[in-house]
Amino acid sequence: MNDIPNDPLSEFSIAVFTINGLLMRSGEEVTKPLGQSSARWQVLGRAGHKPQTVARMARDIGNSRQSVQRIAHALVREGLATYIPDTSDKRAPLLQLTPRGSQILNTIHEKDAQWSAELMTKLDAAKLTKATQLLAEISSELGQYLMIKGEK
Predict the structure, then answer these.
(1) pLDDT at 151 over 60
(2) What is the spatial distance between Cα 40 and Cα 45, in angstroms, rounded to a whole number?
(3) Nearest alpha-carbon partner for 81 in 92, 102, 96, 93
(4) Residue 48 contacts by C-beta under 8 Å, 6 or more apart in sequence?
(5) Are 96 and 81 spatial neighbours (Cβ–Cβ below 8 Å)?
(6) What global pTM score does this model have?
(7) Helices (H), 32-124
C-alpha cells in the first residue's frame, strides 16, 4: 500500500499541479479554435514578449528544450515565427514572431481576456493577488534552493 505524502510541501505541489493542468485545459479551449494549443501559446507568448532562444524559453516555461524546439520549428514552418541571429551567441538563433504570428497571439489574448473576465466573476481578486504574491515568493525560494543544490 502506497502512502500518499501529506506534508505541506507535497500538498502544495499537488495543488499547483492540479491548477496547472486545469489552466492548460482552459488554454486548449481558448487556442483550439485558432488551430493552436496551450503549449504553442506559451512559445508564441515568449517570442511575442521578446525574441528569445529556444533554450531560454524552455527554462522559463519549465519544458524540455527538445519540446520547445519542436514547437518552434512548427511555428516557423507555418509562417508564425522566424529565426533571427542572436548577436550575443552565434550558435543559438532567436525565435521571433512574424506579423501573422503576432496576429494569432493577439487573437489568443483577446479570447483569453474574455475567458478570464468570465472566470473572475467567480473568483475573489484580492485572494488571487495574495496567492500570486505567495507563489512568487515560493518560486523565488525554490529557485534559490535549486541553484544552491546545483552548485554542490
Answers:
(1) no
(2) 8
(3) 96
(4) 97, 101, 102, 105
(5) yes
(6) 0.83
(7) 38-49, 54-61, 65-77, 99-120
The answer to whether the beta carbons of residues 95 and 75 sit under 8 Å apart is yes
User: What are the residue ranges spanned by the domains of the chain?
Assistant: 32-121, 123-152
Residue 28 dihedral angles phi and psi, to the nearest 5°: -65, -40
Per-residue cell: 118: 468570465
Tell me the sheet residues that pair with 83.
95
Question: Tell me: the pLDDT tens digits for 8-46?
Answer: 999 999 999 999 999 999 999 999 999 999 999 999 999
For residue 4, the 8-state DSSP code is P
- 56-64 long-range contacts, CB within 8 A, separation 24+: 57/95, 63/39
Domain 32-121 has CATH 1.10.10.10: yes
Considering the chain, what is the average pLDDT of its residues? 93
User: What does the alpha-carbon distance between residue 14 and residue 22 come to, in Å, rounded to a whole number?
Assistant: 12
